[in-house]
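Protocol step 4 of 6: structure prediction from sequence.
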Amino acid sequence: MKLRGWLTAALACSVAVMASGPTLAQQDQSNLFPVPEIEDALSWRSLGEAEVQFDGDRARTLVPEDLLEQEGETVKAVGFLLPLSTSGDRQFLMETSPHCPFCLPITRESLIELTSDEPIGFLLRAVVVEGLFDIADETVEGSLYRMTNVELLDE
């Protein structure tokens, strides 16, 4: 009987929270877990403005002009690392910490795939990286943004 009362109270609380407004995943999270502002770094807001356009069965991503101008250039980016390989040479860079299960990015324009010659490892803090910027705008599979020859700048 006590369990039923607890479940009823938990359900009522959940309904009240859901009715009160957008969930954490629906809110702009940049002010909850802010990454440091770095001069001349890629803007997460600009990265997130990419849009997918479909022409029949072919998908193309429309990327903001300021990002297209930086393609092929060496750029800086700031964010949190999420390992993609055990060797530490492939990672995702994200605006939010991967340690918050409610804050993980769900779109490919909110990730930058990093490839480095030297292992970066796994760090629990925001990092600044530099590398060659590439945009994979002709596919909807995988990450949209990539950086190669990445180096960690803030050690």
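Step 5 (inspection) to follow. Confidence is low (pLDDT under 50) at residues 5-31.
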